[in-house]
Structures are given as C-alpha cells and as structure tokens.
Amino acid sequence: MSWKPLRVLTPRSILPASAVMLVLAVGAAAHANKPVPFGDRVAGPGDAGAAPVNSESLSSADLDLRVGPGLEAFHKRTGEQAWSYRREGAEALHLAMAGDNAIVVWDDGLVTSVRPGDHEVRWHRAVPGLADWLRGDGEPGADKRTDAQRTALAKQRAAAALHTVQRDGSPWLALVTPNLTMGLRDADGDLRYNDKPSGSCVYDPLRAVHTDYAVLVPRTCTNSGGQAVSGGITGYRLDSNGWTTNTGPTATVKVLDRSRVEITDGPIVPPRVFDTKAAAPETACGSVDAPFAAVRPQGGCADPSAAQAPAGAPAPDATDAPVGDRPAAQPQ
After folding, report:
1. Coil, strand or helix: which one is 324?
2. What's the Cα-to-Cα distance from 27 to each of 17, 35, 39, 132, rounded to whole Å?
3. Is 194 helix (H, G, I), strand (E, B) or coil?
4. Helix (H) or strand (E) segment spanning residue 22
C-alpha cells in the first residue's frame, strides 16, 4: 500500500485574494459548461428523466438488475422498468453485488458503484490495463475472432476481473488483471491496496476466486524461454495483511464455503484446505501438529482409541478393565 505524503503549504504557495476570486469565477463558469462526468446518464422508463428518489421506498431486493447495454432495473413485482443507467460510448459487461450496491464493469476499463434504491451513481474508478485485457487485442488469434467471440471474451474476462467480498457490514471489491490487482472499499471507492506480480510472473484472473473474507489470486512465473516453471497464490484482505503460498504453475483453487478453499496442486501433492477467515491452513487429522493447529478440519478428528468394535462382538465390561482404570465405587 502506498501513502501520499502530506503537502505542506508555504506562504509562496498561498494565492492572493484577487487570484482566489478569479480562480473561483473561472471554476464556476467551467462547471456550468461541463458535460456529465464519465458520460453518465440515468433515465426512467421511455428515456424520461429519472426522479432522484422514487415515491416508494426501493431496495436491491425490490429490483431485478440486468446488464447490457448499461445497467437496467426492473420492478420484480410488476416487471416494469424502474430506471436505466448508461454511459455514453461505453457498454456494461458484468454486474456483481457488494452488499446492497451494484458494481458494474464497463468495456472502457471503468468500474462504477450504483445504489439501486435511488439509482445514485456512488463512485467511479478506472483500472489501468483492464480495457486492453478485456479486448484481447494483439493476442494470438485475436484478428480471427468474430464480433460475437470478442463480446463473449470481454464478458468472460469482466466476470473474472471483478470479485466482491461480502465481509459482514463492510463489503469491498478487488479488480484483477494479469499485471495488476487492486482492492477498493465499497463505501466510497477508496483504493486500499494495489499490487503487481514480481519478476516474470503474471496473475491469472480466470483462476482467481473469493470468499466472504478474502480474494485469492493465482500467478504463473516463466523462465527466459517463456515456459511456466512455478507459480503461487496470493490472498488479499482489506482489514489485515494477506499471505502468499508457493505452488506449481497450474494449481487450482475451489471455494468450499464462506471461508474455506481447497488448493489442488497436481497429482502428487495432496489437496490442502485453507481458511481465509483465520488466514491459516487447515491441519490434517493425524498430523503431529494437530493438537496445536490454528484451524482444525470441519467436524473435528475421530479419536483413534475409540475404534469401532467388530459387528456382533459383546460390549466391553467395566470389570474387565485394569484395576487402575476402573471407575471409583459410588457411595450407597
């Protein structure tokens, strides 16, 4: 995470009063002639202007949200259009919810957050390199793709790039491209971290997954000949430090539940489970580390001394136990 140093104003940097008034006047005139930021246009049914707040109280649960060419909202009860949000010269590719807010990925590399209840566009964030990756220009075979294939590829990659983490009470989101991953706070779109893969490595958004606590991004590293030689998985969180684990170049991550994932790294290494809430691996039953494990397997481990007796065998009698192991006699 990078922090911008505070800029200290010096007397030389303070404008005289007349200059301040001139700047304010020019700024007001520019604002009056300024086009709608980012080409945003929110409209009601039939392109009528959408009211700032509907006469009835709405929430995301009351609306059916769809993408293409913008973000379209329909009343679930009646099926009628409530409003549409579009951006001039851009097309919406993918939608995901962060809490009650709708996050939209656009084909020009912009990401926006919309509050469905009053159709307010809350913030905009540009992701460097996202538009280029969505288009896939310059890739092998790119010139032979049809328009339908280009559209399908852009939508697939937009879905892979956006990950919303529903952390209780404070959802956030990550944007993943081969050369950059960014974490944003949904409350205001504030950038909380950005990270680039090191050396000759690239992230693989198509293998990335998320839980309710973290986003896990696999990466692949190549040698000087362009051959994949190693890999790894980086886990990102917004409220604490993340983690990194080394893997082979083709390791896969499967989400098991709200916090746990299973990492499979080829036929030789057995799959292992990682808990993204505890930020620790799950210790296997029978391991020497099991008594001290931070995360134990779901359901616990069976007691090896409590082996099941063969079918038909009589239950052991307490009197057959050694004297030292017999229960003490109860007073009459």
Report:
1. helix
2. 15, 14, 20, 34
3. strand
4. helix 17-32
Name, in order, each residue with C-beta under 8 angstroms of 184's C-beta and a sequence gap of 6 or more: 111, 125, 172, 173, 174, 175, 190, 191, 192
Q: What is the pTM of this model?
A: 0.74
- Evaluate whether 21 touches 28 at the Cβ level (below 8 Å): no
Q: Which residues contact 41 (CB under 8 A, 6 or more apart)?
A: 85, 86, 87, 88
| Contact between 137 and 185 (Cβ < 8 Å) | no
First to last CA, the chain: 71
**What is the three-class DSSP state of 40?**
strand
Calculate the alpha carbon distances from 287 to 79, 237, 247, 256 in Å. 57, 28, 21, 22
Do 233 and 253 touch, CB atoms closer than 8 A?
yes
Question: In whole angstroms, what is the distance from residue 265 CA to residue 283 CA?
Answer: 17
On the CB side of 259, how many CA atoms lie within 13 Å of its CA?
13
Tell me what percent of the chain is helix, strand and coil, each rounded to the nearest 5.
Answer: 20, 35, 45
Give me the DSSP letters along 151-193. Answer: HHHHHHHHHHHEEEE--TT--EEEEEETTEEEEEETTT--EEE
- Measured in degrees and rounded to the nearest 5, phi and psi for residue 69 equal -75, -15
What string of pLDDT tens digits covers the 332 residues of the chain? Answer: 333 332 333 333 334 444 444 434 434 433 333 346 799 999 987 665 555 544 456 777 889 999 989 999 999 999 999 999 999 999 999 999 999 999 999 999 999 999 998 899 999 999 999 999 999 998 999 999 999 999 999 999 999 999 999 877 789 999 999 999 999 999 999 999 999 998 899 999 999 999 999 999 999 999 988 899 999 999 999 877 789 999 999 999 999 999 999 999 988 888 999 999 888 888 766 565 555 555 666 666 655 554 454 555 554 444 443 433 333 433 33
